[in-house]
Every structure is written in structure tokens, then in C-alpha cells.
């Protein structure tokens, strides 16, 4: 309900500014702080929505724009899902190591934080170049694997931080109680630390899923991978001068894709409902 209200409010703001805003945008000196309101820069909302149901091209067998965007989004979603799974394994693994040994936390955590400062758009072509040289027997590195690896690079960070905070969340009295029961490390981890980490881990997994989609889209743009939504974003943006509403189709698709990815993690919350209590943000 509130989501629909938010979408409606954005549409009204869009049309309101387009109605009253200057054609050349709002400028302060030589700096434009608000966009132009021409149909080329800001198509009407109904034009953008209507364009979704028109063919992508004038060819007789051309798909509607929404169908082309949906197919591209499914391709990107599959790649992002693979990257998210890798990010979960790496993030939780690092959290376990840092929780187990404090010296590992001191040594790894600064580098984990520093890793997120690398500009992704410059890093993606390097990953593709390295991956193309990997050949192990009959195995050959595929271009989509580079995109999935970059998606995992963005996904693992919030998962590692959230999992670490969750694993460290049990009070001393609870850990001491496990010690009085002669519980070992693995028993304490399974019976106490993992259940305690769930309220921290679920929001981190949702954020990691959204980050994986962002990483996949950016990597598709940077590496030129065909078939994904990142590629058609660039392709349709190049056609915006003649068909401005068309360029917004993949933008809407990318937004829905991120929402679907983050919302899918909510299914884990249903499965782990006995452990959720109040979710905590890392």
C-alpha cells in the first residue's frame, strides 16, 4: 500500500516539475541543478508506460518492450543470484573466521572495508581479462562468470559485516552457560551464535541481494556482456534522441529487478521466523 503511494507521489512530482519547470532546467550560474523539462529529457509518465507495450523495433516479429526488458532482467537475475550465493559463502566464511579469532578480525576487517572503495566500473574489465585466461582441463571461463564474480564482490561486504555482528551478539552470560554444559565451539555456534545472528543476517542478505543486482548491471555495462539488462540500458540510451520513452524501459526493469532480488530473501525470513524477533541493521 505504502509502496504504491510512494510510486504515485514520484509520478506526481515528475509531472508537476515538468509542468512548471523551465525548459532548460534550473540553473545557478553555469551549474544546472535541476534537469530540463523537455520531452526528450523528461518524457511524460504515460508516454513511458505506454511505450512498454509497443514493439521494441519496427520489425514484424519484434517483441513488446516489456517482454524484451523482462527477458534481459531474467538473465541478469540469474547471474546476480549466482553472485549472491558466492557472496553469502564468502561473507559468512569471513565472519566465522573473524568471530573465532580476534586477531583475524583486526587483520581482515579493515581490508574488507577498503575493498569497497575500488571503482567497480574500472575493476570489471580487469576481472574479465583475468577470467578469459583461465582454462583448467575442459573448463573454460565464461564471460557471465566475470559478471557473477563482480556481483559477489559487492554482495559479500554487507553479509560479512552483518554476520559478524550477529555472531558476536550473544551475551557473555549465554556463552558461559554453554560452557557450563560443556558445549564445544561447534555446538555453541550451531545452538547459540547462528540463531542469535539471524536478526542481523536477514537485513544483510537483503542488502547483499540488492548489491548483487547493482554489481551485475554495472559489470554488464563495463564488460559488454550481451543479453542482460545492463547491455540494453546502454543500447536503448543511445536511441533516446529519437525515442526517449524507450530508454526508460530498462531503467524500470532494473528497479523491479532489485526489488525482486531483495524481496526474494524475505522467503528466508518466513523459514527462519522462529529466530527473527526484531531484525537489526548492521
From TrEMBL:
Residues 73-269 form the ABC transmembrane type-1 domain. Pfam families: BPD_transp_1 (PF00528). The keyword Disulfide bond does not apply. GO terms for cellular component: plasma membrane. The keyword Transport applies. It comes from the Bacteria. Coiled coil: none annotated. The chain crosses the membrane at residues 65-96, 108-127, 147-164, 251-272. It is found in: Cell membrane. Keywords: Cell membrane, Membrane, Transmembrane, Transmembrane helix, Transport. Its main location: membrane. GO terms for biological process: transmembrane transport. CDD domains: TM_PBP2. It is a multi-pass membrane protein. Gene3D superfamilies: MetI-like (1.10.3720.10). Belongs to the binding-protein-dependent transport system permease family. This is ABC transporter permease subunit. It comes from Agromyces albus.
